[in-house]
């Protein structure tokens, strides 16, 4: 394989891939080119990558410690020393927001790792098998769906005790039902398709069909849905933080920061606004990427 | 057409009083009722009918894709009314109408072929995969493509190659060419004939197209509203040997706008 | 042809994609009179694309150019969107292969036909209803009163297609484009639909553009046939004279068809020539 860019492009776009991994690379490339043709999606992706970058390198990026108090410089408006000002304990808001990116990202990552498999498995089993299994699984799902997710998360956190970890678990518990519904709908339409019939005619077991034929085909829409839900997850986490049920002080969680800022809203607007804007930006970025992914992963576009 | 040497008179598929019902209670309706026929080893048997006649359902009932009752359902000497084991699926394979639908949209061609090998524990899968591709006339440069990167005819060839992986005795053909262009249809029909000549496959072919059935089959059953109207030789079907009014209507309709006008005046040459 | 209903000159449709420019239609010209004009070709020949362009229903990514597409004294390529709205469904009707996608699933078919008539004739509700029922009768639907109250999903393919035809005809168009309109139908039903279309063309003096992949059907049904291959008209023939087709593509297509009365051991396979 030639390594210069022209050779690489040819390798990625040739009509005759030479191996399974070659074909897989081409597939990824194909999705990427479609994603890349969507400027808003790219903008969102850049924001998310920036967030990841910040989360990794925050010890070197943040100008101050997020916890260091300076009671002589409380509630300082944004200036050249403190670009986004300071809060009521004289902590640098920019540093706290930068450190908060780690919390936000870990919420996002842990919730998706919990939610995607649960939703996918419940949905695919219910959709493929149907019958009583479908009825049982879907009634349970609807039970979770019938409460607003913030209220449900509140109830869980209230039962488990306020902490960031409990908040993450609570959010995960509220986020899988829509994924399960989605996976079920997909499985329902897939199970009568001819290519599934063809696999059944090879004598494949039901479990094999669900795991290696139905579930993988549901994955793209689940990814899209989770990405789109990410904004909601971040906002729920922020909401729990705001209500004092998520991350506990002095942890620089964005929602909790907004909550503190509320008290100083009238004379020190930056305390609440800056973390609020961060939440907004990141939620928006995930939404944009989700939208772009939906278009890029849709095989009907081909 | 079927090579006479390969046609022995032992039925490889025997079906008596097959009944398929869909729905329950008030919604229950019979898709297939009391269908009986038998197919001899090495022949091509046609099931002709219009949509909703239950012809495809008969195929799906044989494979167990839809539940059914029958007094007799013997395939390759075995009673398959209860459970169909892996052995059944080695002997019986199906080719679907729309090859794009029938292939896994995100698997490469090679993976489509290896899937039955893996499930049915076929030995020498790779060698057989290459042989299957060769026998359907597909180039090996296509191995790592996805179905959407192939033409309709190529897709149907892949589907046939996949069905051949287990070296079956019987291929159930569910309108295998009706989603294809005429020129591609000719290629696929020729391919099916060649495969039969080479390996003595038995075909049970469902079609709405009398031209295709006349080309491929010696005997055919005409289905209407879930029942077999009559079973007859294709020669008889074409030359006015049909006894039932529905069959006559079907032939008349096919000839009215379907046939080459030059042909109708002439009697069918009873060659081959 | 004197005074054709529709005149298409040098129609070209192209798409600009990642893989470069793709020419779907490469210079198609024809005139349509009060006749049944067949456009035959295999998938990808551009036949449907041509039909869509006449109604200016090409996909947004398509670049459509032509010397003109003239309907009476309107050039469809230049017409305003408003003019087009008045043309689509009223002066030119389109019947597609699957009526399911063309009918509103939550409105009864009768009401949809009545609605089409009311827009066209500005008639009263009861008038339109009567007219719709009559139209259902005209397309040979048994028990039109009952079918009037049915929803599209309750229709069989043939019935759905009759509904589509009824809906297109109720506003008395000059031109009807049938795009594979009978391809999904059973032979017996197809026969009835074709006879119905035939009567309508003769009685009402419509111009019918019959787009199909089925050469035999077109040669029996139409007056004139355009054979398209890869975006070009390779041959134009009187339908009855298809046997005298000279283009190897047309000949190849004719030969490749299985024939009920002429058994052959193998079907001749079409050899494609890049120069066509």
Automatic annotation (TrEMBL), chain A:
Gene3D superfamilies: MetI-like (1.10.3720.10). One of its GO terms (biological process) is protein transport. The chain crosses the membrane at residues 40-62, 103-130, 150-174, 226-248, 268-290. CDD domains: TM_PBP2. Signal peptide: none annotated. It is found in: Cell membrane. It is a multi-pass membrane protein. It holds the Pfam family BPD_transp_1. Its main location: membrane. Residues 101-290 form the ABC transmembrane type-1 domain. Keywords: Cell membrane, Membrane, Peptide transport, Protein transport, Transmembrane, Transmembrane helix, Transport. GO terms for cellular component: plasma membrane. Belongs to the binding-protein-dependent transport system permease family. This is D-ala-D-ala transporter subunit.
UniProtKB/TrEMBL annotation, chain C:
InterPro entries: AAA+_ATPase, ABC_Ni/Peptide_Import, ABC_transporter-like_ATP-bd, P-loop_NTPase. The keyword ATP-binding applies. It is found in: Cell inner membrane. GO terms for cellular component: plasma membrane. It is a peripheral membrane protein. Keywords: ATP-binding, Cell membrane, Membrane, Nucleotide-binding, Transport. The keyword Transport applies. Residues 8-255 form the ABC transporter domain. One of its GO terms (biological process) is transmembrane transport. Transmembrane segments: none annotated. Pfam families: ABC_tran. One of its GO terms (molecular function) is ATP hydrolysis activity. Belongs to the ABC transporter superfamily. It comes from the Bacteria. This is Peptide ABC transporter ATP-binding protein. Its main location: membrane.
């Amino acid at each position: 394989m030639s390594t210069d860019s022209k050779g690489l492009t040819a390798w990625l776009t040739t009509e005759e891939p030479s191996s399974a991994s070659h074909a897989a690379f081409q597939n990824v490339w194909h999705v990427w080119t479609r994603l890349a043709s969507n400027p808003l999606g790219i903008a969102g992706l850049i924001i998310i990558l920036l967030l990841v970058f910040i989360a990794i390198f925050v010890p070197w990026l943040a100008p101050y410690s997020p916890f260091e108090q300076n009671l002589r410089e409380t509630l300082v408006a944004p200036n050249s020393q403190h670009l986004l000002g300071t809060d009521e304990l004289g902590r640098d808001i920019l540093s706290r927001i930068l450190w908060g990116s780690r919390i936000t990202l870990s919420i996002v990552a842990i919730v998706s790792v919990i939610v995607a498999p649960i939703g996918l498995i419940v949905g695919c089993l219910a959709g493929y098998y149907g019958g009583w299994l479908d009825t049982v699984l879907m009634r349970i799902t609807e039970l979770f769906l019938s409460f607003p997710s913030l209220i449900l998360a509140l109830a869980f956190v209230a039962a488990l005790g306020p902490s960031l970890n409990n908040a993450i678990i609570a959010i995960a518990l509220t986020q899988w039902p829509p994924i399960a519904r989605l996976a079920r709908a997909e499985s329902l339409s897939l199970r009568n398709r001819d290519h599934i019939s063809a696999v059944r005619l090879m004598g494949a077991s039901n479990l094999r069909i669900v795991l290696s034929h139905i579930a993988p085909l549901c994955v793209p829409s689940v990814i899209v849905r989770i990405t789109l839900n990410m904004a909601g997850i971040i906002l729920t986490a922020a909401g729990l933080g705001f209500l004092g049920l998520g991350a506990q002080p002095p942890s620089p969680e964005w929602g909790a920061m907004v909550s503190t800022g509320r008290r100083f809203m009238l004379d020190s607007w930056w305390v609440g606004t800056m973390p609020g804007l961060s939440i907004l930006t990141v939620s928006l970025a995930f939404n944009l990427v989700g939208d772009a992914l939906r278009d890029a992963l849709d095989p009907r576009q081909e | 057409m079927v090579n006479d040497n390969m046609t022995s008179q032992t039925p490889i598929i025997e079906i008596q009083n097959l009944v398929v019902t869909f729905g329950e209670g008030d919604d229950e309706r019979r898709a297939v009722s009391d269908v009986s026929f038998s197919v001899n080893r090495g022949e091509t048997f046609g099931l002709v009918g219009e949509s909703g006649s239950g012809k495809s359902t008969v195929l799906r009932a044989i494979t167990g894709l839809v539940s059914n009752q029958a007094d007799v359902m013997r395939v390759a000497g075995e009673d398959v009314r209860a459970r169909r084991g892996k052995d059944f699926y080695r002997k019986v394979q199906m080719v679907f109408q729309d090859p794009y639908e029938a292939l896994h949209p995100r698997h490469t061609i090679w993976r489509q072929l290896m899937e039955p090998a893996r499930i049915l524990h076929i030995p020498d899968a790779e060698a057989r995969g290459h042989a299957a591709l060769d026998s359907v006339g597909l180039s090996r440069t296509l191995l790592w493509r996805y179905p959407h990167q192939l033409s309709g005819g190529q897709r149907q060839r892949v589907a046939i190659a996949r069905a051949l992986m287990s070296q079956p005795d019987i291929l159930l053909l569910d309108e295998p060419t009706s989603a294809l262009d005429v020129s591609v249809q000719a290629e696929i029909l020729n391919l099916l004939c060649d495969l039969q000549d080479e390996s003595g496959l038995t075909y049970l072919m469902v079609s709405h197209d009398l031209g295709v059935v006349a080309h491929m089959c010696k005997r055919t059953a005409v289905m209407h509203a879930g029942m077999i109207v009559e079973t007859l030789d294709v020669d008889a079907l074409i030359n006015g040997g049909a006894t039932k009014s529905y069959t006559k209507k079907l032939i008349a309709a096919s000839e009215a706008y379907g046939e080459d006008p030059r042909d109708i005046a002439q009697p069918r040459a009873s060659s081959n | 042809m004197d005074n054709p209903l529709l005149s298409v000159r040098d129609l070209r449709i192209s798409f600009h994609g990642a893989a470069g420019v793709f020419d779907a239609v490469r210079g198609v010209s024809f005139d349509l009179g009060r006749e049944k004009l067949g456009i035959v070709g295999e998938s990808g020949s551009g036949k449907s694309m041509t039909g869509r362009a006449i109604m200016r229903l090409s996909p947004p990514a398509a670049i459509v150019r032509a010397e003109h597409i003239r309907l009476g004294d309107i050039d469809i390529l230049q017409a305003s969107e408003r003019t087009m709205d008045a043309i689509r469904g009223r002066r030119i009707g389109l019947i597609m292969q699957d009526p399911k996608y063309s009918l509103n699933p939550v409105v009864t078919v009768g009401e949809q036909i009545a609605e089409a008539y009311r827009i066209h004739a500005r008639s009263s509700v009861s008038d339109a209803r009567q007219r719709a029922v009559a139209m259902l009768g005209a397309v040979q639907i048994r028990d039109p009163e009952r079918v009037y109250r049915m929803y599209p999903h309750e229709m069989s393919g043939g019935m759905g297609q009759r509904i589509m035809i009824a809906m297109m005809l109720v506003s008395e168009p000059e031109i009807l484009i049938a795009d594979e309109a009978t391809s999904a139908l059973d032979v017996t039903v197809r026969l009835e639909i074709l006879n119905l279309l035939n009567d309508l063309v003769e009685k009402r003096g419509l111009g019918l553009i019959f787009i199909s992949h089925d050469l035999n059907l077109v040669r029996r049904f139409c007056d004139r046939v355009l054979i398209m291959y890869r975006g070009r008209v390779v041959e134009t023939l009187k339908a009855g004279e298809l046997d005298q087709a000279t283009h190897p593509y047309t000949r190849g297509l004719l030969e490749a068809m299985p024939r009920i009365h002429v058994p052959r051991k193998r079907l001749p396979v079409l050899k494609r020539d890049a120069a066509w």
